[in-house]
Amino acid sequence: QVRLVESGGGLVQAGGSLRLSCASSGSIFSFNGMSWYRQAPGKQRELVAAFVSGGSTNYADSVKGRFTISRDNAKNTVYLQMNSLKPEDTAVYYCRGLWVQESLEVWGQGTLVTVSS
């Protein structure tokens, strides 16, 4: 089985920082297009950050300059560093990847980030 598991969410004050982790049950090279999404209650799930073709990264305008997506291949883990957090960042954050072997979208279970003002 392949699985993505997020961790690192919690409660933080506005202006604070959190680092989310997305751990793969197998090699991170089994996945393409690793990315982070978020969804607030009653809202549509939105793309936050992603690795894109050519070795580049892409960010939603709302998080540019504050969030950074990165990976540690040795640990089979993708990270989302979130700085200068705002109350509007409050959401469940999901890790997503395309499992190459089966061409299957794989989603983590989500981790809740709550930013208080």
Number of distinct helices: 0
CA radius of gyration is 14 Å
Helix content: under 10%
Low-confidence segments, given as residue ranges, are: none
Counting DSSP E segments of at least 2 residues, the number of strands comes to 11
Query: How do the SSEs run, as a string of H and E?
Result: EEEEEEEEEEE
Tertiary shape: globular
Structural class: mainly beta
Q: Sheet bearing the most strands, described?
A: 7 strands, mixed
Q: Give the termini separation.
A: 41 Å
Explain the layout of strands and helices:
Layout (H helix, E strand, L loop, with lengths): L3 E4 L2 E4 L4 E7 L6 E9 L6 E7 L3 E4 L7 E6 L4 E6 L8 E9 L4 E4 L3 E6 L1
Parallel strand pairs: 2-11
Antiparallel strand pairs: 1-3, 3-8, 4-5, 4-9, 5-6, 7-8, 9-10, 9-11
Structural account:
This protein has 117 residues and is mainly beta. 0% of the residues lie in helices and 56% in strands. The strands form two sheets. Strands 2, 4, 5, 6, 9, 10 and 11 form a seven-stranded mixed beta sheet that branches. Strands 1-3-8-7 form a four-stranded antiparallel beta sheet, with no helix packed on it. The N and C termini lie far apart (41 Å). The mean pLDDT is 93.
